[in-house]
């Protein structure tokens, strides 16, 4: 941990907010989803191996509850030798993406390995999207309150920003746009939901997340 990580962790140590009931729901849903999607995950792994070999998983350090870092897993969307190159964001027409990777990005099936993160307790089924360490300094001005909540696989941000890459103006610096517009918009959305969340509302967002995979995404204007 660097000094910023330590400061965030000390300020927002995870409390009992997630609760035993919600954790139990996480285990049931993640366990069932792992069984249901196991054949699909094997097919994806096989396709990635056939396409380019190498590791089928991409692991990256993300910020968890309380600012504590953890290793988040995804299916690899980029070429074997370029995961650490280029932008810390995926943009439209990203040349690093493979054919299988484009399919995974369109369907969000690259997120399926995060069921393991849920089973381990590092993530929840519903929670704020875990942020890359490259943007850890964006948690300021009250937005750091998002770190009180366990990050999740699904939720308002993940659904409403389902096609996040398409929000970036072609003329704008994507990193600067993310820091100044996208990150604050997503953090404010999270803070409008999680302080008043219920088990029922979380289940509703789970359902909306599944619908989003099949193309249903409600419109969500970004305040620029």
UniProtKB/TrEMBL annotation:
Superkingdom of origin: Bacteria
InterPro entries assigned to the protein according to its UniProt record, in alphabetical order? Bact_transf
Report the transmembrane regions from the record: 27-50
Q: Name one Pfam family in it.
A: Bac_transf
Q: Which residues form the Bacterial sugar transferase domain?
A: 22-214
Alphabetically sorted, this entry's keywords are: Exopolysaccharide synthesis, Membrane, Transferase, Transmembrane, Transmembrane helix
Q: Name one GO molecular function term.
A: transferase activity
Return the similarity comment: Belongs to the bacterial sugar transferase family.
Q: What is this protein called?
A: Sugar transferase
From what organism does this protein derive? Mesorhizobium huakuii
């Amino acid at each position: 941990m660097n000094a910023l990580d330590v400061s965030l962790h000390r300020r927002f140590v995870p409390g009992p907010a997630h609760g035993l009931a919600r954790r139990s729901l996480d285990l049931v849903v993640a366990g069932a989803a792992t069984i249901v999607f196991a054949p699909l995950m094997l097919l994806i792994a096989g396709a990635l191996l056939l396409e380019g070999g190498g590791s089928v998983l991409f692991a990256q350090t993300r910020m968890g509850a309380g600012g504590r870092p953890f290793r988040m897993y995804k299916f690899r969307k980029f070429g074997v030798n370029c995961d650490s190159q280029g932008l810390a964001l995926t943009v439209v027409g990203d040349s690093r993406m493979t054919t299988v990777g484009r399919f995974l990005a369109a369907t969000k099936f690259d997120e399926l390995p995060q069921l393991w993160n849920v089973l381990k307790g590092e993530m929840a089924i519903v929670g704020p999207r875990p942020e890359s360490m490259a943007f850890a300094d964006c948690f300021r001005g009250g937005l750091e309150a998002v770190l009180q909540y366990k990050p999740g696989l699904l939720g308002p941000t993940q659904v409403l920003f389902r096609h996040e890459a398409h929000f970036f103006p072609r003329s704008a610096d994507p990193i600067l746009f993310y820091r100044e517009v996208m990150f604050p918009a997503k953090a404010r959305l999270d803070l409008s939901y999680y302080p008043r969340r219920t088990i029922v509302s979380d289940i509703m967002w789970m359902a909306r997340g599944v619908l989003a995979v099949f193309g249903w995404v409600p419109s969500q204007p970004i305040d620029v």
